[in-house]
Structure formats: structure tokens, C-alpha cells
Amino acid sequence: MRGIDTVPMPGPGEQxxxxxxxxxxxxxxxxxxxxxxxxxxxxxRQSGGRFLLRIEDIDSQRCRPEFERATYxxxxxxxxxWHGEPLRQSEHMSRYEGALLHLLEEGLLYPCFxxxxxxxxxxxxxxxxxxxPSHELVYPGICRDIDPAERERRxxxxxxxxxxxxxxRAMTRTGPLHWHDCRxxxxxxxxxxxxxxxxxxKDTPTSYHLAVVLDDHLQGVTLVSRGEDLFHATxxxxxxxxxxxxxxxxxxxxxxxxxxxxxxxxxxNRAITLRHLRDIGRTPADIWKMLGLQQRV
Length: 297
Ligand code: GLU
Hints:
By secondary structure, the chain is of the alpha/beta class.
């Protein structure tokens, strides 16, 4: 933890904040999600703004309707109410596809034919640092310089591939970029530390990174608050914003709630789901208290 989180207020002359909570319905919400949602909800409320909900359900393999239903019920139970209809990403695929096409036409994407295994082997052989700041394997650019005719041949042959963003090329278009985090201050965007990210796969014309940037803009979000585990992703989000001509929102990367052993909470840990806590007789007021907050009346 880096100190206590404080809900930010709009700066002088700024409009009331528009915030959001953007869960993926791949499991039941746990106490960490409640913290994130409450943080965003309180920031909007205290500034007289709006709190929005977005369902990040682009991964049709892992997302399930019962988890989406449970998300609405659990938030409602804790006393977290959002403004208007939630945005469901699965209903916006053609918009993401359009944005992807724009990057493709700009010559900023390349097809990557590598499997995870191939990437791991290449990284091991090269002796490079295998993991980026978010502990994911950093793609070493294997397919970046494949000859265009060879690319074409492999695509026509039906080889599976994903679209990756050529970060170095994109950065030469945008020049240096910065973003503002309420706790860290002004940060220079260094998306190269994450490697060239996948922006779309064969059957999904988007990725988390692409969709989150487009949707925060579409929903008019002015403060993106989320866990500090996503701090590093913001470097890339800032680059995508610049490529699409989007004015960046402000960011607040809040503390993560840990379990009693200090470990990060996971959706598979049933004991800390809001559902379970409700079933064993905890009240919404108990949840607020567990998160160090006083429930509003
Ligand atoms: N859908 C992401 C998650 O559940 C959150 C994305 C975000 O807040 O930017 O982890």
C-alpha cells in the first residue's frame, strides 16, 4: 500500500467528475471489486458528477451471463448505484473493428503468428528480461519485420494470427506523451516496456487495451480510477489515445485490497466474494466497514 486513498475532486474550473467501474463478468465480484466500485462511485458523488458502469465482456470464452447478472445484484446490494444503462462491450464490436482498421491503414499493426510457447522459447534463448512491469511475457518482436509478401502468403494459407501494435513506430508518430495520475503526478508514457501488445485476435476485433480507451472516451469518463495493478497499462492507453486523437482523462490507481496474508485477491477465492459474505449474514454496512469506509445513509 502506498498510503490511504483519497477521493479526488475536480480541479478549479473543472466539471464534476464522470467516473466508471468496468468489471469483466468472469466470476463473482469480491471485496476488492467493491472497493474499486465504491471509490469511483464516491468520487463522482462527492463532486456532484456521474458514476457509470461498463461490462467488459469481450472474451466470450470466459464471460458468463450469470456473472453479469450477479454483478448488477451484488453492486445493488452493497448500495452502489450507477447512472443510466451499463455499456456492454460485446455490443460494440463493429466500433472496435473500425478503430482497428484505422490503425491498420496507418501502417501501425502487424500480424503475429507466434504461439505463447514460441514466444517463451525465444525470450529464454535471447537471455533478455522475460517479464514486463505487469509480469507478463514481453513480446520480443519476432514477427515485426517479416517481409510483406511472406505475411500475405501465411495469411492466405490460413495460419492463425493476432494483430500487434508496432509501439516504436507509433511513438515516432506521436512524439513524447505524458499522462496524469492523481497520486503519482505527471508520468512520461513508456509503452515500450510492455512490448508490442496484441490489439485484436482472429475472432475478436479488439483487446482490453483498445476497448477500454475507446469506451472511456465514448462514455465521457473524466477520471479513470482502477487498481494499481493496471498502472503500467496506462502507458499504452495514453499512446492509443494519441493515435486516435483522444484527450486523456485523469487517472487514479488505487491501492489493492489484500487478504489476511497480504496476498492479492483472486476471483477464484470464494470466501471473499460479496455473494458469500452476504450468505453468511454480513450486511452492506459491514462491507463498507471492511473497506475502511462509512456507509452513506
Ligand atoms: N475489466 C478490467 C478488470 O476487471 C478493469 C479495467 C479497467 O478498470 O480499466 O480487471
